[in-house]
Amino acid sequence: MFSLSQRFQTVSNTAVTVGLFLAAFIIGTSWFQLVSNHAFDLSSSISNVTPKINVRTSRYYGSVNGKAKENAKVSFDLEADLTKLFNWNTKQVFTYLTAEYENVKHTRQNEVTFWDKIITSKDDAVLNLTDAQSKYHVWDVQEKLTGKDLKLKLHWNIQPWVGPLVYGETDGTFTLSIPEREKTEKKAKESESAESSSPN
Amino acid sequence: MSDVFRELNGKLLFPVDYPSQTLLAKRHKLLVVIGALVSGVVGVATQSILQMGVCYLCFVFVALLLVLPAWKSYRVHNLEWVQPQAVAVDLK
Amino acid sequence: MNLRLELTKLLNLCFVFASAYMFWEGLSLVANTHSPIVVVLSGSMEPAFQRGDILFLWNRNEQSKVGDVVVYEVAGKNIPIVHRVLREHHSIADPSKQVLLTKGDNNAGNDIPLYANRKLYLNKQKDIVGTVKGYFPQLGYITIWVSENKYAKFALLGFLALSSLVGGE
């Protein structure tokens, strides 16, 4: 502590070390708040899910070399209360609706996202959507989506100010069975979308 | 070249006497830890990390202000170094 | 001028640089990735990650889950891209074979226009640098400033060398 630079180094070292303890305190209290608010057992309700199938031929919709690729969109009703995820350490909550399914031979497990939303404040955290449209066209790597059973779930992800990212999922699920399409219906839809197949 | 740096270092020393050093070592640590506790309480009360950070930085700034400049009261007990003297020596 | 003294000081300086490099390589080994700390370069993940944030990566997970924030490099280019996994498909028999589709939170569409060789998916083993586990705000702006300003690199190196020499005694 003799010279100026030594004193400055000592004080800044102490400040940084104690600052790390403060950061640990923030992470600890926010985690404790999440657990005591039962944030990991949140419930949600997904209902009224209707799929819509389109066939596309551009690379942006999953088609390889121009071959026809089945794309799916869904409309759904969603109710969830995510206010318990917000505390002083929450920067934003990213919530997303995913669907899990297996391929026909049950050799591959898949999970796709139909819809997501960024919530930045507690006031916007109550989700009450009716007839919402999915944000993304979804296609499978190799197969069609018709004839498959999709299990839909709502997940959330907290982006904190300090500390690690926290992930979780809500309790509500919905199993959607996409029916096989009639051959004639499929042909009609193909010619329809081939005429208007410019990507929107 | 290193002589220049050594001279520069000597000028930037701003020394402090030894009893003050022990005093400062204890005091700044106490100040920073108290600052952390107070800003923790402020943060939980206001539920805002920004308030907590500002409060903590204020305490750190006060600690720096107390420690960095070589205030007059820290140099009261300066040690008296023996000055080199020229002495005539009979070599024979 | 004492040559040995000057060389000793130079040795100390080399020691500082060498230990910084060793720390980086050690971290790379622990996290199993060639780049365990990256700086966010674009605003495609706002408001979660701003330009200049530092991200800490971890690459010891066999699979990525939908919703993970991953860093990947397009084959051939050295620029890390930080986006979120939108879709994943993996084989049940061999879980390490996984393909991913990613999208930035702040982008309108997914990352297919960014992938090289007209591919539709990223390969988890080959393309992913790591999953984001933690972050520190804004400190990485120094590296952005250094890489975008011609003289900043020399100024920073000069400052480091000077401070190590002056404070050495």
Automatic annotation (TrEMBL), chain A:
<dbReference type="InterPro" id="IPR007653">
    <property type="entry name" value="SPC3"/>
</dbReference>
<dbReference type="GO" id="GO:0005787">
    <property type="term" value="C:signal peptidase complex"/>
</dbReference>
<feature type="compositionally biased region" description="Basic and acidic residues">
    <location>
        <begin position="179"/>
        <end position="192"/>
    </location>
</feature>
<dbReference type="GO" id="GO:0045047">
    <property type="term" value="P:protein targeting to ER"/>
</dbReference>
<feature type="region of interest" description="Disordered">
    <location>
        <begin position="178"/>
        <end position="200"/>
    </location>
</feature>
<dbReference type="GO" id="GO:0006465">
    <property type="term" value="P:signal peptide processing"/>
</dbReference>
<keyword id="KW-0256">Endoplasmic reticulum</keyword>
<feature type="transmembrane region" description="Helical">
    <location>
        <begin position="12"/>
        <end position="34"/>
    </location>
</feature>
<keyword id="KW-0735">Signal-anchor</keyword>
<protein>
    <recommendedName>
        <fullName>Signal peptidase subunit 3</fullName>
    </recommendedName>
</protein>
<comment type="similarity">
    <text>Belongs to the SPCS3 family.</text>
</comment>
<dbReference type="Pfam" id="PF04573">
    <property type="entry name" value="SPC22"/>
</dbReference>
<keyword id="KW-0812">Transmembrane</keyword>
<comment type="function">
    <text>Essential component of the signal peptidase complex (SPC) which catalyzes the cleavage of N-terminal signal sequences from nascent proteins as they are translocated into the lumen of the endoplasmic reticulum. Essential for the SPC catalytic activity, possibly by stabilizing and positioning the active center of the complex close to the lumenal surface. Essential for viability.</text>
</comment>
<keyword id="KW-0472">Membrane</keyword>
Automatic annotation (TrEMBL), chain B:
<dbReference type="Pfam" id="PF06645">
    <property type="entry name" value="SPC12"/>
</dbReference>
<comment type="similarity">
    <text>Belongs to the SPCS1 family.</text>
</comment>
<feature type="transmembrane region" description="Helical">
    <location>
        <begin position="53"/>
        <end position="71"/>
    </location>
</feature>
<keyword id="KW-0256">Endoplasmic reticulum</keyword>
<feature type="transmembrane region" description="Helical">
    <location>
        <begin position="28"/>
        <end position="46"/>
    </location>
</feature>
<dbReference type="GO" id="GO:0005787">
    <property type="term" value="C:signal peptidase complex"/>
</dbReference>
<keyword id="KW-1133">Transmembrane helix</keyword>
<dbReference type="InterPro" id="IPR009542">
    <property type="entry name" value="Spc1/SPCS1"/>
</dbReference>
<protein>
    <submittedName>
        <fullName>Uncharacterized protein</fullName>
    </submittedName>
</protein>
<keyword id="KW-0472">Membrane</keyword>
<dbReference type="GO" id="GO:0006465">
    <property type="term" value="P:signal peptide processing"/>
</dbReference>
<keyword id="KW-0812">Transmembrane</keyword>
TrEMBL record, chain C:
<keyword id="KW-0735">Signal-anchor</keyword>
<keyword id="KW-0812">Transmembrane</keyword>
<keyword id="KW-0645">Protease</keyword>
<dbReference type="GO" id="GO:0009003">
    <property type="term" value="F:signal peptidase activity"/>
</dbReference>
<dbReference type="GO" id="GO:0045047">
    <property type="term" value="P:protein targeting to ER"/>
</dbReference>
<dbReference type="InterPro" id="IPR036286">
    <property type="entry name" value="LexA/Signal_pep-like_sf"/>
</dbReference>
<keyword id="KW-0378">Hydrolase</keyword>
<comment type="function">
    <text>Catalytic component of the signal peptidase complex (SPC) which catalyzes the cleavage of N-terminal signal sequences from nascent proteins as they are translocated into the lumen of the endoplasmic reticulum. Specifically cleaves N-terminal signal peptides that contain a hydrophobic alpha-helix (h-region) shorter than 18-20 amino acids.</text>
</comment>
<keyword id="KW-0472">Membrane</keyword>
<keyword id="KW-0256">Endoplasmic reticulum</keyword>
<dbReference type="Pfam" id="PF00717">
    <property type="entry name" value="Peptidase_S24"/>
</dbReference>
<dbReference type="InterPro" id="IPR019756">
    <property type="entry name" value="Pept_S26A_signal_pept_1_Ser-AS"/>
</dbReference>
<dbReference type="InterPro" id="IPR015927">
    <property type="entry name" value="Peptidase_S24_S26A/B/C"/>
</dbReference>
<dbReference type="GO" id="GO:0006465">
    <property type="term" value="P:signal peptide processing"/>
</dbReference>
<dbReference type="InterPro" id="IPR001733">
    <property type="entry name" value="Peptidase_S26B"/>
</dbReference>
